[in-house]
Amino acid sequence: MASSTIRPSSASSLFRLCNTTNTCAASLVSLNPSSRRFPYLASAVPQSHFFGLRTSSKIWRGESRSITAGNMAQSSTAASLLEWVKKDKRRMLHVVYRVGDLDRTIKFYTECLGMKLLRKRDIPEERYANAFLGYGPEDSHFVIELTYNYGVDSYDIGTGFGHFGIAVEDVAKTVELIKAKGGKVTREPGPVKGGSTVIAFIEDPDGYKFELLERGPTPEPLCQVMLRVGDLDRSINFYEKAFGMELLRKRDNPEYKYTIAMMGYGPEDKNAVLELTYNYGVTEYDKGNAYAQIAIGTDDVYKTAEAVKLFGGKVTREPGPLPGISTKITACLDPDGWKTVFVDNIDFLKELDDPITVATLKIESALKMTEEKENKTGIMERKQKRKQNDRNKKNPENQNNHNQDQDQKNAVKEDKEKKSEGKTTKQEVTSEDNNKKKHKIVFPFGNYRNYYGYRINEVDGDPRLKVFERDWFQGKDCLDIGCNSGILTIQIARKFHCKSILGIDIDSDRVSDAYWHLRKFARTENVEKNSTKVTRLDVKNKVNGAKHSASASSVETKEDSSSSSKGDLLDVVSFRQENFVQSQRPLEKQYDTILCLSVTKWIHLNWGDDGLITLFSKIWRLLHPGGILVLEPQPWQSYEKNRRVSETTAMNYRTIMFRPESFREILLDKIGFRRAEDITDGLSGSKAGFDRPIFVYHK
């Protein structure tokens, strides 16, 4: 019947369940020739046992040496498999279950539980549809796969399935939202029985229970699947040995007559886990036909099936590729009959309906390398500081000497950096024309003077200022990456009254220009302030009457107070020479707003896809929660125009995989920004170049 059919998923478990698991298993054994071969278990169990043949007593009694050898081989096989299972790269991929109204469930999960609809597809010729939802991309998060079979509007959840767990920062607030949306709350917020963690229970439209657990920010909000088992110790032993899971914790609650065990592939606060529950005296449960299975990634489905068989599980689908798509899977049952599908890790990534999944491992590698590099830098600097402090305590005179040495080192380093930047940020190109040499300076990082300003007639006419919102900057700490000559950085500080704004640029000459502009604007601002004060005093002296005088005085006091509260421009704005992508400078502070305007192309051309991901991931870490990234990416056509400014850019241009049109997807699905908006509908500048969109990404 349709109600008991699992529909295929392109991400992993692309196969059908039979009406009953036992029937399916029997049909597989009888029809699949490979199920009659047991190469992996030949040394573990006498092969004749699998075919129902009686073992000759003569063999067992008369060939004691063979028995000993067999036992040794069995022990060796078990030990090696157990070791391999522990080292296998495994992760819980998704949980699959059936619902009666797909759109209704999607609406509930997105509006009440804050999930994202990752993808959805309808297969009318096979009369089913499915949808994937979760809190992040499938290649790095545990997600939900919902299956809807045409014409089936309800299922039996049974008594064996328990609940799903979701970590939230405020359980009470989430419960109120769910109530407002018409959701069903089955347990009001309060401490868990026998503990202090605040929890609540709710039900989705199909009756599936969700436990809300109050926790801090976590990379894996969809954090639990709870299943009931008849023998907890047996289940723990199986999941440890056959599945390679760790027993994270075990808790007995004799007062309420149940025991739980948390099993998983890492700490509970960072990974999805399996919660096994044993109720005293209950050994069997009705599994119903609603809940289906969990999918787990593995590097080798063949060895996985071997381990499952060896450690007491039942393989219901022998390992191998699925017809037509070559995704390798194996399916099995645990001692209680709960189903799990193991999917080949590489095949899983290939099967995702994601245009940039081919490079997912590259992204993850770049993110990890960046983080490790920053961590190592921070650790080294802390160690050096501790050593120096210890030396200073022993000999105070060392402090003065150390400071002098450090000043000298910094001066030498700064001098070297300036010389180096002078060589690397500008290049002379020589061409022969009528036997005369012409020298043209090119800027491989887009660091020519007034990169912003040359496109528009006047600085105040920059159209981008018109679409920026005051709330993004006023009273906020801001960072402008690739500030060039600093003109726009200063204009933002003046117009929106930032608490602080730091502009960084790869070229020390541009940073010098920026400070020149800052001093110029500061002088102009001081002149304007003094002029305003004189004008106000003149007006005040000419006004007759104490009432008017008092009024003028109050206006002056109010305006002076307002002006001083906005801060002096020289105190608010600063600049620094820095290669943001390659810098190993420790993260000193976090920002409320980060600007990255007309910069991505130059970083992309000079450091390739890895450099781009490093840029995005560092921005993410530098932002406060709730902070924003204002991004103006250059279009792909402009890459082509500038690809030959250096050998490096020419080489990287040929290998770039991430086009600007995919940045949105990378930032939302891979880096982790919450949402994005295009703020430049129809915006254009006075010259070509500012017709490109500007996006705001919210952390």
TrEMBL record:
Q: Per UniProt, where does Zn(2+) bind?
A: 145, 163, 211
Q: State the UniProt keywords alphabetically.
A: Lyase, Metal-binding, Repeat, S-adenosyl-L-methionine, Zinc
Query: Which biological process annotations from GO are given for this protein?
Result: methylglyoxal catabolic process to D-lactate via S-lactoyl-glutathione
Question: Which protein, by its recorded name, is this?
Answer: Lactoylglutathione lyase
Question: Which Enzyme Commission number(s) are on file for it?
Answer: 4.4.1.5
Q: Which reaction does it catalyse?
A: (R)-S-lactoylglutathione = methylglyoxal + glutathione
Pathway annotation from the record = Secondary metabolite metabolism; methylglyoxal degradation; (R)-lactate from methylglyoxal: step 1/2
* Task performed by this protein: Catalyzes the conversion of hemimercaptal, formed from methylglyoxal and glutathione, to S-lactoylglutathione.
InterPro entries in the cross-refs: Bin3_C (IPR010675), BIN3_SAM-bd_dom (IPR024160), Glyas_Bleomycin-R_OHBP_Dase (IPR029068), Glyas_Fos-R_dOase_dom (IPR004360), Glyoxalase_1 (IPR004361), Glyoxalase_1_CS (IPR018146), SAM-dependent_MTases_sf (IPR029063), VOC_core (IPR037523)
Q: Where is the VOC domain?
A: 91-215, 221-345
- Give the positions the UniProt entry annotates as the active site: 211 (proton donor/acceptor)
Domain annotation Bin3-type SAM: ranges = 462-699
Q: What are the record's GO terms for cellular component? A: cytoplasm
Q: Report biased composition (Basic and acidic residues) as residue ranges.
A: 371-396, 404-426
Disordered: annotated segments: 371-434
What does the similarity note say? Belongs to the glyoxalase I family.
Cofactors needed by this protein, per the record, are: Zn(2+)
